[in-house]
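Sample intake sheet
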Amino acid sequence: MRDSRINKLASVIVNYSTGVKKGQLVRISGDPIAMPLLEAIYEETIRAGAHPVLRLSPESCHEAFLELASEEQLMYLNPLLKHEIETIDVSIGIWAETNTKGLSRIDARRQGLASSARKPILKTMMERAALPASDPRKLRWCGTLYPTLASAQDAEMSLRQYADFVFNAGFLNLEDPVAAWKKVHESQEKLRAYLQGKHELRFQSPNGTDLTVNVEGMTWINCSGHENFPDGEVFTGPNLNARDGGVNGIVHYSFPAVHNGREVHDITLRFEKGKVVEAHASKNEDFLLEMLDQDPGARFLGEIAIGTNYNIQEYSRNTLFDEKIGGTFHAAVGAGYPESGNTNESGLHWDMVCDLRPAKGQSTGGTITVDGEVISRDGQFLFEGWPGR
């Protein structure tokens, strides 16, 4: 029997997150291991009067492609995929990993070539997603996760515990998850409205992080369960055209950053005029550098965001959840989101998370300062009505 929370998740994704309408073409994709959720979303899409297209994408086939393909094949831009991203109205992607370390021994350069080749597809997706809701060409999309043993092991939980973690993060344990997400939107909107029109953010933490980000003229986005599910962040892109280059300083990321199955530990990035000019890691540093060098835009910062989901409190080695942890901020090297005003282009978009909560055994954490005013201390916002307050 299908877990009732899967049916509830499917309903939220189709009817709230993406707002599927009658007659729309909806792509639903994921590994076959997520079939219960894929089926539930397919059924809900039919109920909405839309036209679902199911695309199964086994993790094992992606691994085989990266391992066996020639360089010509790695760099091939599939015209069918290009047409698909230009044509569909809605994209719903399910992340369901059967082996989170499956790509660990694939040459990083080969992964970089494949990633760079898909840059036009990523660009089209981001450009269509940035269009106003009234534009018939707008692409609505959402990504969510199906709990698997592999992901549960990464999070150091049993599958049952991990499923509870996943579903509770999306308020699917509540009778009316949509009502809960609407409340999240209201509290995050107060933060977003405050940030809109500001000039500079400064992130500081006891681990030595001291990063300034110019956001003058950029647009802040309230993320409340539409593109990601679960959600819980406000984000924008740095103003890379600013006189100071948009991003300067150093950041020591608190958690291992996971990309293409590789865990990169103790990442330190130093930025000058928006660009990573120095990068270090205690594990998989070569992979980090290969990803940053895959194309000209990969070393520039495309996104800066504040995590606001205080229902997520622990690191799970999955970026979908880790970047939303209340009391953190994250920054993504590579492609920016055009709706934020940042138009950096790259085949890479890699979110890395920095914790502003007090570390174990310490009494103080980090701060977020906006145009000289501290708005967050020790991972907690200082104003009533904001997330977590």
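Comment: The chain has a mean pLDDT of 96. The longest helix spans residues 177-195.
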